[in-house]
Design goal:
Belongs to the aldehyde dehydrogenase family. Keywords: Oxidoreductase. InterPro entries: Ald_DH/histidinol_DH, Ald_DH_C, Ald_DH_CS_CYS, Ald_DH_CS_GLU, Ald_DH_N, Aldehyde_DH_dom, Aldehyde_DH_Superfamily, Succ_semiAld_DH. Its EC number is 1.2.1.-. This is NAD-dependent succinate-semialdehyde dehydrogenase. The structure is a single chain. The chain has 15 helices and 22 strands. A seven-stranded mixed beta sheet has the order 14-15-16-13-12-18-19, sandwiched between helices. A six-stranded mixed beta sheet has the order 9-8-7-10-11-21, with helices on both faces. Strands 5-6-22 form a three-stranded antiparallel beta sheet, with no helix packed on it. The longest helix has 21 residues. The chain is α/β, with parallel strands linked by helices and about 475 residues long. The protein is about 40% helix and about 20% strand.
Amino acid sequence: MTHPAIARVGALLKTSALVGGHWLAHATRFEVRDPANGQLLAEVSNLDAHEADRAINIAANALPVWRNSTANERSAILRRWYELILEHRETLAVLITAEQGKPLAEARGEVVYAASFVEWFAEEARRIYGDIIPSPSNDRRALVLRQAIGVCAAITPWNFPAAMLTRKIAPALAAGCTILLKPAEQTPLTALALADLAMQAGMPAGVFNVLTADGRNSVAIGKRLCEHPQVRHLSFTGSTEVGRLLMAQCAPTLKRMSLELGGNAPFIVFDDADIDAAVDGALFAKYRNAGQTCVCANRFIVQAGVHDEFVARLAERSAQIRVGHGFEEGVQQGPLIDDVAVAKFMHHLDDARRKGARLHVGGVAPKGRFVAPTVLSQVNTDMLVAREETFGPLSAVMKFSDEEEAIALANASESGLAAYFYTRDISRVWRMAEALECGMVGINTGAISYASMPFGGVKQSGFGREGSRYGIDEYVDLKYLCMAGL
């Protein structure tokens, strides 16, 4: 029986890999299933490392023409891709909900967010400026060019199957690079649909390639992308553990890398905060995508004077969140992605309760992969929820007394992706913003990500930036020209 969502997708349903402008219908295929109920969505081409080699060579052959195209030509194609994404936003949203699980309204928002990166870098393609440096000699001139780095590879996660793709692909294409995308095995259908729209926009054959594979073959393809000397850049979003492995595999070829890895974001609420705003921000930062975001608030650090009020109001609002299948009307939170994610959620919850945490709401046995939003207080640093990223709808609240303690608790992590804090004290704003060890800080807001802003972390959350005018720097080399005899 065909999944109801698939009937709504039409011609954008692609189940073959895209290599060299052709859809590669491989004889070996893997299943993509709805995480909410396990129903089969499609069977997709399952490529291996040999096909990855072929795709790398095709991307290398396509590079000279694309790199030498004008900025205006690349910009026009990206602009058309952006327009097509918006034209097909409903179909793309249906695909996202079907294979990733988030509510349809949230999926629609992701499509618009994903499109914004294509629009942004369509414009940035025309702004890859060089420099003229004052020369120490009158008979010399010094110039700096910024040129496309070459063939690039991107490995994208399942939690934002559209936005993580465009955030990596668009700047590479804008800079004049060709690219090989390896989407997560859980969510290849969104990636293939977006690639189809890119081809419709006029993307030349071989410039944008999509290598689909199951879990085992994904490991082999990822290893080949890391080791192949013709691939000059690798961008990856995922766990810190996998990021370390990829970095080691890239070392022999000294490949440039952009790594956006695990987060363990602190969410700090001071006594002088606007509690209404803090609770609203907490709900967004914690429960968006069922807590399965890299910048998700993971550790709530609340000052003693407002602790009880904040916990009570967060618990009350959390209990009102409707959990269910993403296609059901009014649903605000979908399922976790798989059984492993559910098991991790329950392990963190059980560990915290065993070590003395107080349960305020949620905490019930999950119905399949549907997990109730859960709020804990009396959390301490010995608990897993304080030391590891849960990646689920578990709000763990700990109490602090003064600013110094809040900073120490917030920075007590190997991760440094995002942090949030709420205060009305302008002096504290600057002290906290500068003291927090992270790449992004939300001050009196739980929403921080926009195409025009740099996204990325420090410490073991990785390096490199996506989005903003800095994002294109990851895909260009600097070339210094010294002109003498003038």
